[in-house]
Amino acid sequence: MADIGPPIIGVSENIRKIRELVEHVATTGFNTVIFGESGVGKEVIAQNLYMKSPRLGKPFVKINCAALPEGLLESELFGYERGAFTGAEQKRKGKFQLAHGGVLLLDEIGDMSLVLQAKLLHVLQSGEFAPLGSDKDVKTDTWVIAATNHDLKQDIIDGKFREDLYYRLNIIKIQITPLRERPEDIPPLIDYYLQEFALQLGSSNIQKPDRQVIERLVGYHWPGNVRELQNVLKRMLVLGDADKIVDELFEGHDVQAPTQDPPNRVPPEGHVATAAPAADALQSILDMGNKELIANNTFSLKAAKKKAVDKVEKEIITYVLAKTDWNRSKAAKILKVSYKTLLNKITELNINPPTGDSGFME
């Protein structure tokens, strides 16, 4: 039996709806497919379905369809008789038999071969299967939950997934939104996993990241989703120096804006919009500042360049800060600079919000 994982953590609309759906679906035993990117928490949803179902206490069995070659996956799913193939020295039960009365999670089902898809369809339709090397069918009462990061409808079009199996499996569909599109879930996830990892490490002294670090974590795009967040928090607990760990997190990663702007996120068009104030600032330098330098015989290309760059940078940074309600962490993300670099620029260029220093947000 697999270890049972955490509750469904989050405050976003997507997570709230998933919790409600889990409550409704868990008692039905209807075949379910959980869709979402890698690391988003598909197994957690499957475990919660199991925990709220009448099958709690029966086996919860998981198999990763992408981790095994076709022949081995078939024997793992359906079991085999002694002598069924070379190396089969004794009879062995498959996952369907082991999960009888409980739940079988077919993780990454989009990577299952078409041959095995046909055999799986037969099991779902009849509730029976024959182990390899046997001519006798075995009955199974198993709630099948599938998980995938594939677009199965596109796989059907591409001839990689059976349409009849898709509709047999997809009675209930649960779609988990990527973490980057639900940033409001990051603080509660941080709280939960810090507590969990501290217990694993036998530590009772948990140092929660400060507000500035959490704000930067909220602004990160999390290509590895919740799994990546877990790894970052583990490093913080073991190594400390949260600022350095977050700096390394952002290094070498361009921020990828989501296709739809979630609540309280900075619109991705900020990069394009900065072109207008930059051009205006440059033109003002050409029209005024350098004329004064030339008239006073103090003109040099180096001085002109420095003055132009400072003016342009100040206009751009001020514009982006204003667009983010003077939130320095979000502005640093849009400008693709570290938080410390932005603070230095704000001081150097004497940038202040309309309400003074107190108008800044971390």
Reconstruct the topology from this structure.
Blueprint: H1 13-25, E1 32-35, H2 42-51, E2 60-64, H3 70-78, H4 95-98, E3 103-107, H5 114-126, E4 128-129, E5 138-139, E6 143-148, H6 152-157, H7 163-169, E7 172-175, H8 186-200, H9 211-219, H10 225-239, H11 242-250, H12 270-273, H13 275-295, H14 301-323, H15 328-335, H16 339-348
Parallel strand pairs: 1-6, 1-7, 2-3, 3-6
Antiparallel strand pairs: 4-5
Helix pairs in contact: 5-7, 8-10, 10-11, 13-14, 14-15, 15-16
Write structural notes for this entry:
The chain is an alpha/beta fold and 362 residues long. The chain has three domains: 13-177, Rossmann fold (3-Layer(aba) Sandwich), CATH 3.40.50.300; 182-250, Helicase, Ruva Protein, domain 3, CATH 1.10.8.60; 270-359, no CATH class. The chain has 16 helices and seven strands. The strands form two sheets. Strands 2-3-6-1-7 form a five-stranded parallel beta sheet. A hairpin with an 8-residue loop joins strand 4 (128-129) and strand 5 (138-139). Helix 5 (114-126) packs across helix 7 (163-169), helix 8 (186-200) packs across helix 10 and helix 15 (328-335) packs across helix 16 (339-348). The longest helix has 23 residues, at 301-323.
Encode the helix/strand succession as letters.
Answer: HEHEHHEHEEEHHEHHHHHHHHH
* Average pLDDT taken over every residue: 83
**Neighbour order of strands in the largest sheet:** 2-3-6-1-7
Biggest sheet details: 5 strands, parallel
- The amount of helix comes to 40-55%
End-to-end CA span: 45 Å
CATH-level-4 superfamily name of the largest domain: P-loop containing nucleotide triphosphate hydrolases
Number of helices: 16
Query: Which CATH C-level class of the largest domain is it?
Result: Alpha Beta
Q: Give me the count of strands.
A: 7
CATH topology of the largest domain: Rossmann fold
Per CATH, the architecture of the largest domain is 3-Layer(aba) Sandwich
Q: Give the overall silhouette.
A: elongated
Number of domains: 3
